[in-house]
Design brief:
By secondary structure, the chain is α+β, with helices and mostly antiparallel strands. The protein contains 44 helices and 29 strands. The strands form 12 sheets. Strands 16-17-13-18 form a 4-stranded antiparallel sheet, with helices on both faces. A 3-stranded mixed sheet has the order 5-6-9. It has a 3-stranded antiparallel sheet with strand order 27-21-28. It is elongated, with a radius of gyration of 42 Å. The two termini are 80 Å apart.
């Protein structure tokens, strides 16, 4: 969006062009007068002229002075009063005739609009030319050096003008910072071609202009000191400092003024991050504190550990005689462990009220009762349960009839309550919608050897650019039978020519002018004089800043540019609706197609590169994205389906694999997942909620990854039951065994997903809603339909029917024995967990190392998380093969100016009784802490304020426009109607070179005299009456302050008659913004600035830029993330506490969850994953997914008897394998497929983040959690363990 600023520049350029004319004409006029006075000859003395009167007129109409000296002449009283009104330093005799003075006055009026805001500068500037034209001592500092012949008369051809350096420096210093707000630049850019010192300025003013060109009709050489023998001495009239209180320049025009330097600045200051120096190493305070805290914690833990071990050894030594008893208990324990189902059987058979077995919490007791009865019911009525559950979900799927997909970016990423969205709505409805941008970036191919890009500015490339422009101009898009061209939709500041931003504007967009103007040399000239040369003006009558049409250069060396940037601003409509927008979209589609089909091949054949974009490109590419990853998603499903089928089945035997396999069951499970997703989408579609592309592609995968876990745990639990039991008993016991932990995990996941619903970004909020319901439906289908399917599959297996073809029955003599052995034999993974993994974790030294490593990584992750940057790169949300990928890369590489920034003022009271005018403006008599002065101050520190320039001020220009000093601007006919400047119709008729005066406006007078104004400010009525005149006034050489074009959309005139202007804007620009963090910081800085100024002035002001709406979420993204995570983790903790009634167990689960989330954030920092609504939703959902890695192990640990190490060993043996194969591997398989996605957002935010989550969950659930439980675990819920052990063993 960096290029959006251009339009502001375009519209304002109109004024600039006129200003340039102003300056040069002014110089010419003064010079003409001065030459006349020199006519006296070579005598240099007081009261003697060096040129006097006018002796000729050039072919372009410019008058030239006589080269003859004379005595100074005493003017009549009328002329004397006229001269003193403009030149108060000249009294008595003068060296100018009335004709010379009138010429001087006519030309001076063109410069006044530039400088009137700073009276000191204007006074000094007028003195320079008043002395040159009319000073009675003219011959003392003017020397005619050459003579021309014009119309048969001798005229001045060149002069030396001696001026002291003190005057030159005083003049320059008073004017160098004066703003010309229309173009967000300094007046010196126009009246001095951007001169950096007074010598450069004088050099510009004194150059002789060719016929019909701007400038002086004769050469003026400014010299500091004449030869002593000549009797001359330099002109040294006193100069006024811009800080002179009597001539009150504004702070924006004179930052060095003592009044301004004493005022409190409201600019944003960078907050230095806290650092600590440790030797030669400088570290952040956060890092240092965490390191110290870690050392302290580890020291305490190790101290406690050693104390605990020494105490255990002493106790062991004292109880040595009892070793046989201990050995006996170990033998009993070993025998008990041989039966892996014992702990669960104790839980199943020992109800809470029995006083033996496992003491369950009240909630778990009710859940066990429910699942016991429910398991029996499902086993007896599988068909009924299956059909009824499917019927309910299918009923929800009927809502898919109203299914709609949302692709509009502003509807996806901006919440309805967004402050930025409300501000955009206000801006669009009261002022004007920001224009649409169509853009081409034509660049040279970088040299691979030198890694530099060749220059783009060449004759061949310019002519090629004309070819491209012809093809763009020839575009005709079909809209409802109408043929739409660029001319029909483009933005036209002066209602005639398109404000196209292109280097071709230096040739008026006409290829015929290329050779006529001088080709590439003309371009290089315009790069330096774009604001002061007539031939460099654009076709739309405004100056064109080279930084807006060139890219890839350093500093101001435009000739080194390696890219042409062509921008077509197109009119927009409020909310992007209406016929005008529809026409623009039709043209944009044709434009993109033209680039792809014709322009790209042309560019590539010339060894150049072309990046391109239109306003509707992002939306169109998002639509295309819906099918970009279809294959990836399908493959993901197939891979997970294959894995599920394998993991659900028994250990394959060649003779019975077709019986024991679970392909049909796995397929059914996948279909249930799909139904849960469709049911969720159908439900919300019926409510009118639109879906998004992320929902379409990610939720099915996500629900499948989450749902597979429960399917594996359910099937494995059924397989662990004794085969001699009836099927009903097996199902009942299996559900009692795993039902509570599955319920706990699923409810936690649903709650964690649901927390995302409070996120304001619509795409993420809708995603969370759909996902929460889908996970809930998936859980309900698993405990209903899938359990029924397990029953049916078990019946199929017992009946020896073939998997996938249940109608086929097979007879096998050894199938049944194999099957029975397979059911009772512990799997390889379970044996590893119990016999290898658990014993290693029980070693005391291993425990210490694991605790130290995991806590260290958690602390490191906290430090790393502070380095996560907010944002979401635009390239990431688009397909990898999108043409916008290259475009965004080129934008950040080539653009050298930031987006436009508007400060919008609401309810400005312009009445005479109000002080708000002076609180806003920045010209003379305005408050030093006014809005515009503060913006100018902020622009002095762009690295912290992100404001590049002073603001273009319609208010300043309007106050200058109506002031009596600007006598060529606000004028009226004798009947009181508006009279335009003399160089505009009807005051003049179009001639060959310029507008020729026809006398139609000879009776026009200025709108006001000083006596008509109050404190040089218009009254309420005067302000109200003349404002529409100003906004419709065209800028020209005689009055560059006309507001039409530059300020047409800056003021809302609706209801302004009441003395209140509801909305008005002041335009400036952000500095170049290349990174996401730059956009976030610039918005934050602008809002903080506006807030402080609003509070100070008691006026409602807000900043607006086109990108704010999309970046507002990042201002408080950390708070959003932490609040949502806290709610999600808190919700999981409460669920765990309610179900388990164990604060101890819930606290351990809470600790592990927090560590997983913190570690995930640390991984985000390592992988450079940014913090945005997508990653926040992922973090919140990771809480729900991480629960599965903790809750099953913790529950198994709690219902197992023995000491803590034995209980951990038992828990790993029973649930460790299920967690690894059913949770870790299933998620891993599905996640890995996403790395092949064509859209970067899935690779970064789903593949990388979920892969990290799965690995972290696995490590914490099967490594860290068992160690924590073995040290700090809660007591066993088994009661009367000794009796149970004895009876069991016997």
């Amino acid at each position: 969006m960096d290029h959006h600023h251009r339009l502001g520049f375009l519209t304002s350029s109109i004024l600039s062009l006129l200003q340039v004319y102003v300056i040069l004409f002014l110089v010419a006029a003064h010079n003409f007068s001065a030459s006349d006075a020199a006519a006296t000859g070579e005598k240099h003395a007081e009261n003697h002229c060096a040129m006097y009167d006018i002796c000729g007129k050039r072919i372009d109409g410019k008058v030239v002075n006589c080269p003859y000296g004379s005595q100074a002449v005493k003017p009549d009283d009328l002329l004397s009063s006229k001269i003193q009104s403009l030149c108060p330093t000249i009294t008595g005799n003068v060296c100018c005739t009335e004709a010379q003075f009138d010429t001087l006055k006519t030309q001076v009026q063109q410069a006044i609009p530039f400088l009137v805001g700073c009276p000191a500068c204007l006074r000094n500037f007028l003195n320079l030319f008043c002395e040159l034209t009319c000073s009675p001592n003219q011959s003392l500092f003017i020397n005619v050096t050459s003579i021309d012949k014009v119309g048969g008369n001798f005229t001045v051809g060149g002069i030396d003008y001696y001026i002291t350096d003190a005057f030159g420096e005083g003049l320059y210093d008073s004017c160098k910072d004066v703003k010309f707000g229309t173009t967000n630049s300094r007046a010196m850019q126009f009246i001095g071609a951007g001169a950096q010192n007074f010598k450069e300025w004088f050099s510009f003013l004194g150059r002789k202009a060719a016929p019909y060109s701007l400038g002086s009709p004769y050469a003026i050489t400014f010299q500091p000191n004449p030869i002593k023998s000549s009797g001359m001495k330099p002109m040294n009239v006193s100069t006024y400092s811009c800080g002179d209180i009597s001539l009150g320049c504004s702070c924006g025009d004179c930052p060095s003024s003592s009044v301004c330097s004493d005022s409190v600045s409201t600019t944003t200051h960078k907050r230095d991050s806290c650092t600590v120096k440790v030797g030669s190493l400088v570290v952040k305070c956060v890092d240092f504190i965490l390191a110290v805290l870690y050392i302290i914690l580890m020291a305490v833990f190790l101290g406690w550990g050693f104390y605990h071990r020494i105490r255990e050894r002493k106790l062991s030594y004292r109880t040595k005689p009892e070793s046989n008893v201990i050995s006996g208990s170990v033998v009993h324990s070993h025998n008990r462990e041989k039966d892996e189902n014992l702990p669960m059987r104790q839980m199943i058979e020992g109800a809470p009220e029995n006083g033996s077995g496992v003491q369950l919490s009240t909630v778990q007791g009710y859940m066990s009762k429910f699942y016991r009865k429910y398991g029996l019911y499902v086993a007896r009525n599988p068909i009924t349960v299956l059909l009824s559950s499917l019927a309910i979900v299918l009923l929800l799927c009927l809502g898919l009839i109203r299914f709609r997909v949302e692709t509009r970016p502003q509807k996806l990423w901006v919440g309805p309550g967004s402050k930025a969205a409300q501000e955009k709505q206000f801006f669009d409805s009261h002022l004007a919608p920001f224009y649409r941008i169509e853009q081409l970036i034509l660049a040279t191919v970088p040299d691979k050897v030198n890694t530099t890009s060749p220059r783009i500015v060449s004759e061949e490339n310019i002519k090629f650019l004309f070819e491209i422009q012809k093809k763009v101009d020839a575009i005709r898009a079909n809209y409802s039978g109408l043929m739409v061209s660029l001319q029909d939709i483009c933005m036209k500041p002066l209602d005639k020519d398109c404000a196209t931003q292109s280097v071709l504007q230096y040739f008026k967009m006409d290829q015929k002018n290329f050779d006529d103007y001088g080709g590439v040399d003309h371009l290089n000239y315009c790069f330096e004089h774009y604001s002061s040369a007539d031939k460099c003006m654009s076709a739309f009558k405004g100056p064109l800043d080279p930084s807006t049409v060139l890219g890839g250069y350093s500093g101001n060396d435009y000739s080194e540019a390696s890219a042409f940037i062509i921008t077509y601003p197109v009119n927009n409509a409020v909310d992007g609706e209406g016929n005008q927008t529809a026409k623009a979209i039709a043209w944009e589609k044709t434009f993109i197609q033209l680039v792809k089909d014709e322009l790209l091949p042309m560019v590539q054949s010339r060894n150049l590169t072309l990046a391109f974009s239109s306003e509707s490109s992002i939306e169109e590419e998002l639509k295309r994205e819906s099918t970009a990853d279809a294959i990836t998603i399908v493959v993901s499903y197939l891979v997970m389906f294959a894995y599920i089928s394998l993991t659900l089945g028994d250990t394959p035997h060649p003779s019975s694999f077709y019986i024991s396999s679970k392909v049909l069951l796995g397929l059914s499970g996948v279909l249930l997942v799909m139904l849960s997703v469709l049911g969720s989408v159908g439900f919300f579609s019926a409510l009118g909620v639109k879906s998004t592309l992320i929902i379409m592609e990610v939720i099915p995968f996500l629900v499948l990854a989450v749902g597979v876990d429960n399917m594996c745990i359910l099937v494995h639990s059924v397989k662990r039951q004794k085969l001699e039991l009836p099927l009903e008993e097996r199902m009942s016991k299996a559900l009692v065994e795993v039902g509570p932990s599955i319920t706990l995990a699923s409810l936690s996941e649903v709650l964690a997903f649901a927390v995302g619903c409070i996120i304001s970004m619509p795409a993420c909020r809708v995603f969370s809603m759909f996902a929460a319901l889908a996970v809930l439906l998936d859980f309900l289908l698993q405990v209903t339909a899938f359990v029924a399917l397990i029953v049916l599959d078990s019946l199929r297996t017992e009946d020896m029917r073939v998997d996938c073809f249940p109608c086929m029955k097979v007879h096998s003599s050894h199938a049944d024995p194999d099957k029975r052995i397979g059911r009772r034999k512990r799997g390889l993974l379970a044996r590893y967990m119990k016999e290898v993994h658990a014993p290693i974790l029980s070693i005391w030294g291993v425990k210490i190392v694991i605790i130290a490593i995991f806590v260290a990584f958690a602390f490191a992750s906290i430090a790393l998380s502070t380095r996560i940057e907010p944002g979401l790169e635009q390239q990431i949300v688009l397909p990898r093969d999108s043409y916008l990928q290259g475009y965004f890369t080129n934008v950040s590489e080539y653009l050298r100016i930031g987006p436009p920034l508007y400060f919008v003022v609401k309810n400005y009271n312009y009445s005479s009784e109000s002080t708000q005018t002076n609180q806003l403006c920045s010209i003379s008599q305005c408050n030093s802490d006014s809005l515009l002065n503060e913006i100018s101050r902020a622009a002095l520190v762009p690295e912290t304020s992100y404001i590049a320039k002073p603001a273009a001020s319609w208010l300043d220009d309007y106050l200058v426009w109506v002031s009596p000093e600007a006598f060529g601007c606000c004028r009226k006919f004798t009947n009181g109607s508006y009279c335009p400047p003399d160089d505009q119709p009807p005051c003049c008729s179009a001639g060959e070179g310029s507008c020729v005066s026809n006398g139609a406006c000879k009776d026009c007078t200025t709108c006001f005299r000083h006596a008509d104004l109050w404190n040089d400010r218009p009254s309420t009525t005067q302000f109200k009456d003349k404002l529409p005149w100003f906004l419709s006034s065209l800028p020209s050489a005689d009055c560059a302050k006309g507001g039409h074009g530059a300020y047409t959309s800056s003021v809302d005139l609706k209801g302004y008659d009441s003395g209140i202007i509801q909305a008005s804007s002041f335009r400036t620009y952000h500095t170049p913004l290349n990174k996401q963090i730059d956009y976030v910081n610039s918005m934050r800085a602008a809002r903080e600035f506006a807030s402080r100024v609003s509070d100070s002035l008691k006026i409602e002001i807000f900043p607006y830029s086109v990108f704010y709406m999309f970046f507002e979420q990042y201002l408080n993204i950390w708070r959003t993330a932490l609040v949502n995570l806290a709610i999600a983790i808190g919700a999981v903790f409460i669920v765990c506490l309610v179900i388990t009634c164990s604060l101890w167990s819930s606290a351990i689960i809470l600790l592990v969850l927090v560590m997983i989330v913190v570690d995930l954030m640390g991984v985000m920092a390592i992988l450079n994953i940014q913090l945005n609504a997508v990653s926040v939703v992922n973090l919140v959902m990771s809480v729900g997914i991480a629960v599965e890695f903790c809750v099953h192990m913790t529950h198994s640990f709690a219902v197992t008897s023995g000491d803590k190490d034995q209980r951990v060993k038992e828990a790993l043996g029973t649930m460790g394998a299920s967690v690894f194969s059913g949770i870790t591997l299933t998620k891993l398989v599905g996640v890995i497929v996403l790395c092949f996605s064509r859209t970067e957002v899935f690779v970064v935010y789903y593949f990388q983040m979920y892969l990290s989550l799965v690995l972290l969950g696995f490590l914490h659930g099967l490594v860290f959690l068992p160690v924590v439980l073995s040290i700090f675990g809660p007591p066993s819920r088994c009661i009367d363990q000794g009796e149970d052990h004895s009876s069991t063993t016997s």
